[in-house]
Amino acid sequence: TNNRNIIVMKRKADKMKGIVIVTHGKLCEGYLDSAKLFFKDDLKQLLTCSLEMDSKLDEFSEQIINSCKSVDTGEGVVVLVDLVGGTPCNTVLKLLLEKKLENVKVLAGLNFPMFLELLGQRMVGTYDFDGLLKVGKDGVTEVKLPNKDEDDEEII
């Protein structure tokens, strides 16, 4: 039965949603580069679109459209944007309104825990967008050192 489970997981992974990361500057490339530490080079159907200082909005829009089409194999696309209300997000929303993008889900406020969770969900073919948002929100927290008594051992 173990072999059967592996085959089932592989079939699900073959039919995965594409991902396009759309950000201000090269932030999207940083997410992709960092994800390789966890997923090696197994990051298929994933492209980035960077809004640069000298970007022309019509060319940026075309890049987003072409990227979404390129990663969509029929299961749809998840577009991750960095900032609600920013130009990358607004450009994607405008393309949706103009029906230049179809079968696209947009999540804004991208952070690394959310991105890694999406990649993990995609590997097994099960998507929980509410869960993604929760992971993203839970990933933002203050990290404190525990109270240390004199008898406690060192943390590191």
Task: Report on the architecture of this protein.
The structure is a single chain. It contains 6 helices and 4 strands; from the N terminus they run αβαβαβαβαα. The chain is of the alpha/beta class and 156 residues long. Strands 2-1-3-4 form a 4-stranded parallel beta sheet, with helices on both faces. Helix 5 runs antiparallel to helix 6. The protein is globular. The termini are far apart.
Which helices and strands, and how do they pair?
Elements: H1 2-14, E1 18-24, H2 27-39, E2 46-51, H3 57-71, E3 77-81, H4 87-97, E4 104-108, H5 112-124, H6 129-138
Parallel strand pairs: 1-2, 1-3, 3-4
Helix pairs in contact: 2-5, 5-6
Short recap of the structure:
With 156 residues, this protein is an alpha/beta fold. It contains six helices and four strands, in the order αβαβαβαβαα.
